[in-house]
Every structure is written in structure tokens, then in C-alpha cells.
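Inputs:
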Amino acid sequence: MQLYNDFFGRFGGRYVAEVLRKPLDELEQSFIAAMSNEGFLSELEYLQKTYIGRPTPLMFAENASNILGGSKIYIKMEGLANTGAHKINNALGQALLAKKMGKSRIIAETGAGQHGVATASVCARLGLDCTVYMGEVDMARQRPNVYLMEMFGAQVVPVSSGSRTLKDAVNEALRDWASSWDTTHYLIGSALGPSPFPDMVREFQSVIGKELVKQIEENVKEDVEALVACVGGGSNSIGFFAPFIEQERPALVGVEAGGRGLGNGEHAARMTGCGVEGIVQGYKSMFLLDSDGQVLPTHSISAGLDYPGIGPQLAHLGETGRVIFTRATDKEALEALRFFARHEGVIFALESAHAGAAAIKLAKEGSPDKAIIVNMSGRGDKDIFITAKIIDGNRWRDFLLSEAGDA
Ligand SMILES: Cc1ncc(COP(=O)(O)O)c(C=O)c1O
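Outputs:
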């Protein structure tokens, strides 16, 4: 197995300041050694089972499939993992690796907060110090996750530079790492950044796809025509797709945030029309940039999909046609969330609901002897402060006001 790539086609690389070369070299060597070390792999597997709760189930969405009348829909229930999303797979793998490397402190960046919560929780479990950088805007809109991170003992550092969102938090984390790497590991939250991060994150997330291979053999009678996953930076999708990339089928479908439309600042559609090649935060990929090469603002109803770049392997797979990219709007994601909640009793995270929306469209075009498998990368508990306002309107507002009044 090829574990280490500098480049995926023309994307990837390690475009960093000289000061970060040594920690990246050290990380690459430790990672390659760990992936063939029986002790490391069995400890990881033990924690995946007993702490994350793996394997996550593959559920046949029977009611949804009957209503849609086309291809059968199956849902990989990644949201049932501890802390509520796939982010924990990568956080656990990297934190365990850092501990083996003798590091005592972890730093991370977070946008939606889900990666920060996953990182803070594994640090508590493994006894590591944890600092999470988070843009002030994201802290305000994801306050419940800030509360959880602090409950796990992490220090959440507000970032007030730039647009005060994820990309600014990444800059702060990189700055910290440049002066602290002898004791500290920078735990990147998606399949991006300078190498070896894209390979490492894919490998730790590929547990999702490896389970799926077995579950298809055991439980899926139909011919699997497509795997569908949402794409922010790309960690849940690349992990879900990983064992299938070298095959010709099934189709691999990545779903981006179509937001409110394709105007500047209204979406995060990097692979479906608006991205350009660039080098940002240590790697070459497709980004949303203005004509001066500056990163453009983004929007999505889901805080986890509004990143202006995409992991380099996915950019390459998009360019070669192995991954087909599409997008879902805020409105379509909300409709999918309601559809699966109403008919299957599961609440998709807003990010994953984008994949749900694309799966609904694909299923309608297919036939009942085919199957579409959608990755529910997370569950929607974290989003209730956004969704309830839209779905439940004033009653929710009144509830929040009365709770605040009691405090
Ligand atoms: C539930 C969920 N799904 C998807 C994503 C998007 O990230 P990625 O593309 O790395 O899977 C996030 C990011 O926060 C998330 O919380």
C-alpha cells in the first residue's frame, strides 16, 4: 500500500516555511512506521471498538426507498460514532500517533466545532493537553461545541484575525506549531494541508470504507451503483471512498455546498464550477480565490462545508473523473434533513444532509435492483440552534429566551 504521496497528480505538495519542514518529516516517518506496527494498529482498533463504538451500522432506508420508488437507499450511520461525527476517527488516530511520538500537547483548528470536540475528547481519553483555535464568528454560531470542548478540558482560543472563521484558525494553529513542535502535534481536521496530512487523514478515515466493503457483502442484495458523501475539506468522503478508488465502480459522488446560489460568498462550490488552482495553507489544490489570489468568503447553512479549499486527492480524483462532483443548496439540504427525519427517524447533520439531497435525486433516476449508499457523516444534534429556528420558528425562539431568562 502506498501510504505517502507528495502529490496527487498536480495537486498536493508541501508548500511550507522552512521551519515546518522538520516537524513534517518527523511526522511522515512516524506515521509510516506506525501503519506497519502491530502494537499501534491493535491499540487503535481496540479504541475504535470500545471508545468510538465501531463498526457503525449500515442501515437500509426502506421507507425512503419505497417512497422514492427508484434505487434503494442505504445509510452508513457514521453519526452514531462517539461525539456524533466521523471526525473522531481521524482525531483518535492522530492523537494516538502523537502520543507514541512522545508529544504531550495537541493543537487543532475547528470551524463547525465538530473536529474540535472530537480532538478535545480524545485528548481527555489519552491524557494529552489540548488547545483549539477557533474563529470568533464560528465560536458565536457553534457555542454548544465550545462548551463541550471546555468540558473535555481543552482551551479554546478565539481567533480575531481575517474573517474570524476556519481559515484564520488554521493560520493561528500553524503559527503555534512552528514554535512548539518539539512537544506539540498539530492535529489537522480534514484530508488537506501539507503532506503527509492528506494521506494520514485518509488512512484514519478509511475505517469507514473498509467496514462498508464487508457490510455490502453481508447486507446489500442490489447492485451498488453509487456512494455519495458531502465534501468540506474532504475527510469523510475520502475515507468512505478509499477502498473503491482503484475500482471502476461504484460511481463515487462528492457533494459540495451550493449555499444560496453561485454568487461570490454565497456557496463553497470549488469543484463544480467556481474553483481555481492555487496554493494556500501549505498545499496545492482547487480554491475559491479572487483575481488577486486572495481567498474568497464562502457560505453554507452547514458550518462544516464552507471551507474555501478541498483536499488535494479529491481535487485530483475530480479532475481525472473518478469522483463526480455535484452540489446541493441550503434549501435542498434542509428538505433532505426533514425527509429522512420524517420517514427514517434519523437526523442528518446539515453537512451530511447535502449528501442526502444528492442521494434522493440519484435514487429517483434509478431502478429498485440498484443501491445508493449515502454517508451520514454526522448527526444533527449539533445543528438544532440553526434548524429549529427555520423549522420551528417562534416557538423555538421563545423556548431559548425562557431558558436564558432562568439562568
Ligand atoms: C458532520 C460533518 N460532516 C462533514 C464535515 C465536512 O468535513 P469533511 O469534508 O472533512 O468530511 C464536517 C465538518 O465539520 C462535519 O462536522
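Remarks. The longest strand covers residues 251-259. Residues 350-365 form the longest helix (16 residues).
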